[in-house]
Design goal:
Distance between the termini: 39 Å
Number of strands: 9
Number of domains: 2
Oligomer: single chain
CATH class of the largest domain: Alpha Beta
Length: about 300
């Protein structure tokens, strides 16, 4: 009985990576059937070099962000009927020769998504390790009770995962967003150890604080959309308690001094208004999302 050949595709989002793109593409070509580079509005020769060494290049006219690059690449992967898609950075941080290890659990049918985890690598700078752990905790996706490396871009996706998971986030928060969607879809996740290279620790194109905030607010946005009543209801409850506490203090101050403490009253009224608005925002979003889900 003939065994159907598994079509493997490597997806590389790239922005101004002319110094490293050729090496990453050529190394990746040894392990996959096609290498796709999504040139996200680069101003250098990234796209031209990638094409010259044999990669399929998808171009954005302007820089749209990592999330948009992934969306473009995933769309192409679905259309080309890829069975396994592996994503990795174009800056040389990831070693393409580790692709077989990352995709192996998918080929064996043991997972839908595999994460190349940097948790096992000793050469990750302390500030990246510390910041990554905080963002990993915020994402909250775990494997066997252990929080996964949610910010790692070295991953593999099965055909099933490609069909079920889409990326809506345009910025750096896409890695966390995709994992949250994977968890929501009930797909199986595995982690495998990888090595990383931070040459001079200058691989990041963005300020690390901006990067962290981008990811954090992406997680907040995702949770507010997926669980609006819980998210806004929780905030509303907190504000309601604040309003009550400061309201009681305002009344107590008036009973003893015979005048209103403006600052206490202002906090109480403001918190009450925020509690009211947050509660009804949660109710409205919950209702809209429920109706949309029922119409699918």
């Amino acid at each position: 009985m003939l065994q159907t050949k598994v079509r493997k595709l490597a997806l590389l989002p790239a922005y101004n990576e002319e110094k490293t793109i050729a090496r990453v593409v050529m190394l990746a070509q040894k392990h996959v059937d096609e290498v796709v580079v999504v040139d996200d509005g680069s101003k250098d020769m990234t796209a031209l070099i990638a094409e010259r060494v044999g990669a399929k290049v998808l171009r954005h006219k302007r820089n749209l962000g990592k999330g948009s690059a992934f969306s473009t690449g995933f769309r192409y992967a679905r259309q080309s009927e890829a069975d396994v898609v592996v994503t990795l950075d174009s800056d040389g941080q990831h070693d393409p020769d580790e692709i077989p290890c990352v995709i192996e659990p998918i080929l064996k049918g043991e997972a839908d998504v595999v994460i190349g985890s940097r948790r096992f690598s000793k050469n990750v700078p302390w500030h990246r390790r510390f910041g990554g752990r905080i963002l990993d905790r915020a994402t909250g996706v775990s494997v066997s009770g252990s929080i996964v490396d949610a910010q790692s871009g070295f991953r593999a996706y099965s055909r099933r995962a490609l069909e079920k998971v889409t990326a809506a986030e345009s910025g750096m928060g896409v890695d966390s967003e995709v994992l949250l969607r994977v968890k929501e879809a009930g797909l199986t996740i595995r982690e495998v150890p990888i090595k990383v290279s931070y040459v001079g620790d200058k691989t990041s194109k963005r300020n690390p604080i901006y990067h962290a905030l981008d990811v954090f607010f992406s997680i907040i946005k995702f949770m507010s959309i997926r669980h609006p009543f819980l998210f806004y209801g929780g905030f509303s409850t907190i504000m309601f308690v604040v309003a009550i506490v400061f309201g009681i203090q305002t009344l107590d101050f008036y009973a003893h001094e015979g005048r209103v403490a403006t600052n206490l009253a202002l906090v109480s009224v403001s918190a009450g208004i925020l509690a009211f608005l947050s509660f009804f925002t949660g109710v409205i979003l919950f209702t809209l999302i429920t109706v949309l889900r029922e119409k699918r």
